[in-house]
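Dear all,

This email documents one entry for the complex benchmark we are building for the journal club exercise. For each entry we list the sequence lines for every component of the assembly. Then comes the predicted three-dimensional structure of the complex as a token string, followed by one or two observations. Please use this as the template for your own entries, and keep the labels exactly as they appear.
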Amino acid sequence: MEDNFQSAYQEEQERLNTALAEIDRQLETLRNTPVYTGNDYTEQILEDSREQRRGNLAKLRQEPYFGRLDFAESGDGVRRELYIGKIGVDREQVSDRPLVIDWRAPVASLFYSFTGGTEATSYESPEGLIEGLVYLKRNVVIRKRILERVADTYDREGDGPAVSDEFLVYRLGENKDNRLRDIVSTIQEEQDRIIRAAKNTALIIQGVAGSGKTTVALHRLAFLLYQYKEQVSAERMIIFAPNRMFLDYISDVLPELGVGNIQQSTFADWAAGILGLELPQQSVMETLNRWFEAPGGMPEITDETSERFKGGTKLIGIIEDAVRRLESGSVPGGDFTPWEGAVLPRRTILRWHNEEYAPYPPAKRKERVMARIHRWIEMELKKSPSAAALKDRKKKGAQREKAYGAKWPKYDPLAIYKQIFRAVKTPADWPAEAPEALPAAVLKETRSQLKKGVVLEEDLPPLLYIHYLLNGDEGVQKFDHIVIDEAQDFSPFQIAVLDLYVRGHSFTILGDLSQGIHAYKGVHDWKEMQSLFAPEHTSYHALTRSYRSTMEIIDFANGILSAGVHSELLAVPVFRSGSPVRLIPYGEQRESDLRAALANLSGRDYRTVAVLTRTLADAAHLYENLSEHFDDIHLIDGGMTEYQGGLSVLPLYLSKGLEFDAVIVADADLDSYGETAWDAKLLYVGCTRALHELWLMHNGRLPDYLRQASETAETASGWPDVSGEPDSK
Ligand SMILES: Nc1ncnc2c1ncn2[C@@H]1O[C@H](COP(=O)(O)OP(=O)(O)OP(=O)(O)O)[C@@H](O)[C@H]1O
């Protein structure tokens, strides 16, 4: 075994030497090629491509590839060694194999989809299905040109028929810093299928916590850019994430994959940008406060809860009705008379509006009709009998044209939205009462909020829809693809609106219903989203394996899911064992116990440790105390734009999407968490943030689901033994 390993290592070292020498040579040649600065277009294109290759080779000379796959096609049966890296490189001499194959290339898919066995396997290539035998799947870790590790995960001539998880487990055992990383060397088969799925479908992915949803979405973008080079561009792709700090947390993955310029935004920022509204961050924080900081837990949610109603599709009908109503009475009454003696009959204007410009949306129609009127005035002016008359008519005409334009309805989304909620005077031909379909509570709340001039996050989808109905998509650059992360917190209305801004329903929608802690606005069942698309335009996938946490943590989190969330979407752990989950009752002093817990965990080899509290107010209070004792400690609130890693104190609901080497859940007891499924979801989110260590601190009165979880999973009670010996339940 040792000999095999030695020879594999030696073989890879030799191959690495050859590959590095060739990459260095190619880079040298390119660097010696004078940079073209002239105006010849073809030369400029060639220079761009040389510049890109210079950049790629400079990266590759540090870490040229990460995997090797030996594959023999059924046709000629010749075993070929294929080296797979983040970027493909051709050889200097033309050959049947590139020096490095891009991980996104069709043949590289075998590296991920092959799950073992001795049977022939196949992959889809542009020439059709290619069959053959896999002989070897090998992971090769190269850092800064040094070969650090060689691990075979499958060897046809070796002992086992299956692909081993050993290398994956080694990778998962590493500590994390303040950024999410790429996983190209260990993408798993179920993830690969999503990454490589065809572009023009709304993919809906339910994935348990830690199943790699965010990571997979980012890799999928890199894949789509490679596979559909001619059809998509990075600038026309967008990823929506829950907050700006999360965007910062994921911001390294795409550049690591050699992909730049993909737009990244929160829905609120993007929508406010299109609407030209200044949506204060304040309003996002207010929503969080209302739901998460309320004393006594989350307020009750019904279909008439404002966020939920405004996120549902019932409002669509009300909006369409209002816009139609406005439009039908839009052409002002009476003929248009720019000066005495010149008359443009209303029936002519109506013909332009209702017939000639009928295909345009209302705001564009108005624009066109007004432009036509302007041209008509200019023609009429030519008939002026004298220069003095011309001057007089010009002045009058301009004034009356302006006045006539002002008589049209104001095609402003916010103005119309206010009219729907009767927060301003409505047009004369509208009923005095607001539409019956608007629930009384939503009407009252929204009316008073709009009267104060406040626009909330929940108002953005309806406002955008009105904007779209008024202006259509003329002049709008549609997206080639949209990724929505944490999609369980998106409403169906948000998705319906986004569908208007993307070509070919090209979506990757990822989320986890068990983490649906924003139930007041999000979906409760993926069918709510699926039903927005024709069946042939959507497909559903489930990711059930969880990669983030140790088996002990996953078992414990599964216990919360079964007993508290009553969900069957349990996670399947990768076989990575660690310390038991620890439940620690507070002694005399809560804060000094939390301090001691943090001191213990941060004293180890971990890079990120978090204390999760029930509310932001708790987090702020605790932070004040802890910051006197710890240097590199940060308080995370909803307005943060950057995630710094190290030690963090944050309310549990803001930890969604993030991960930490070790997590301390403060106050995991009935004083802070009730027995409801929502409380259980909150704790599920918190517990699944931990990679290696999870400690729950409490006052002895645990919610029932936590008690049950602690009985079914491997847990330890109390402080760790100073001797480091494993301790009992
Ligand atoms: N195939 C893989 N190889 C190595 N690491 C992986 C793999 N898949 C996921 N991971 C790791 O698992 C962790 C969780 O990934 P990610 O945050 O993308 O999951 P998620 O499903 O979005 O999680 P959550 O919903 O809980 O926020 C990350 O550290 C990621 O690097």
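Observations: DSSP finds 25 helices and 21 strands in the chain. Confidence is low (pLDDT under 50) at residues 724-729.
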